[in-house]
Every structure is written in C-alpha cells, then in structure tokens.
Amino acid sequence: xxxxxxxxxxxxxxxxxILGFVITALILPVTAQREVSSLRQTENQLAIAQKALIGFxxxxxxxxxxxxxxxxxxxxFEQQASEGGGECHPTAQLLPASTLGIQPVNDQGQAVDGWxxxxxxxxAQSNRGGSALPDFTTRNEMSLVGMASLMPExxxxxxxxxxxxxxxxxxxxxxxxxxxxxxxxxxxxxxxxGGADEQANLINDNIFVSHDIRANDSNGSFNHIVTWISxxxxxxxxxxxxxxx
Length: 245
Description:
Elements: H1 9-60, E1 77-80, E2 86-88, H2 97-100, E3 120-123, H3 141-145, E4 154-157, E5 170-173, E6 175-179, H4 184-188, H5 196-200, E7 207-209, E8 225-229, H6 231-240
Parallel strand pairs: 4-7
Antiparallel strand pairs: 1-2, 3-6, 4-5, 6-8
Helix pairs in contact: 1-6
C-alpha cells in the first residue's frame, strides 16, 4: 500500500514557532530604528521651535501666545493689546505653527513631533507693570518694564515629587516647548499619562518636569521630551535685534 509522506502537526508547529522567532527578530530592529528616528526628528523640531520663538520675539517685541486645538496653528488671545499681543487664552496649549510659519503640521494646522502628535507650548504670563497685560506676550512690554524687573515664572524640575523654590532645573523660564513622546497619541486619545511626572506637564500651570525617557520609575513611565527658553538667551537675542535697551 502506497503511503504519502508529509509534515506532522508537531513538525508544522515547530516550523511556525521558528518562523515567529525569525519574523520577531527582523521586526524589532526596524521598530527600534523608527523610534530613534522619531526621537531625533522630535528633538530637531523642538530646536526649530525654540529658534522660531526667539526670532518672533526679535521681530515683534514679544513672544507669541499658544494655539488652541481648533485655531489651526494660530495664536489665541483672551485679551488683546492695541499695540499687539496681549493675554493668552487659558485653554491654548499648542505651539502656534501658523503664527511662526513652521512645518511640519497635521491636517489641522498643528505643529507635530516625530510621532505625528501636536507639540505643546507654554509662555510666561507674569506682569510687572507698564500695562495690565502680560510682559512677555504684549508687544514692547519687556522693553517698557526693563530686564531687571521682568520675572518669568515658569519652573522646570527633574521630578514632580521634588520641585520647589530651592530644587529645580530652571526657576525663571520664559517658555516651555515639549512633545508627549511615543505615547502622546494614546494620551490625547484619552489614555492615562504614564505617571506623576507626565501628569505635571499636562495640568497647564507653571510647573513642568524634564528628565530622560524612562519605562519604569517611582513616578511612573515618562516619554515627554521637554525644552525651554532661558530669559537670558531671549534678552540677549532681543538686545541684538534692538528690541531691548
């Protein structure tokens, strides 16, 4: 009687397992390369954003306000000054791509990071006199108040659990620009932030956290990439442009 040889179920299972290992070994490096590429693109975008913000201040005598989710990259005010600029809208949290004229943007006109997620932006709203409107977003207000009297109030710390007047990375940033990182799309879609440090950056107050990306930490995972503008870098740039005496 003729008997046709073939693979047994066990042999087929072994082959499938081996194929699974091979495919996984091929996919993981590609995924890692994409993550590195997205990270580098994001860091480059944040650096471009910093330069654009400083250039805007050199040209306009103020920093721009953030954009909202629906303003298509245009800065949004709560109260405008007759001379230009003014008080920023309290719900505006995004980098104003259209106002700054930067790319890339998504189909809603929002500046995006390497993962295609909107880039966030916070600017100081302190007022030291001269007018009732914020010094850093009202045209020529910085010049009117004077560098010695300006007091930007944004603080960036290395941890949300150790952030005070004596423990910080910078205590007088004029602006913060940051990406939500690789998990940003999920967070914007309703998922919980990675932990207390990520949550601190989403409250829309004047306290931010910046440290390396961590999968496991006492304050939860952290995927944000955070950068800021020092007042002294801004002042120097504006002096060079003739916007500050």
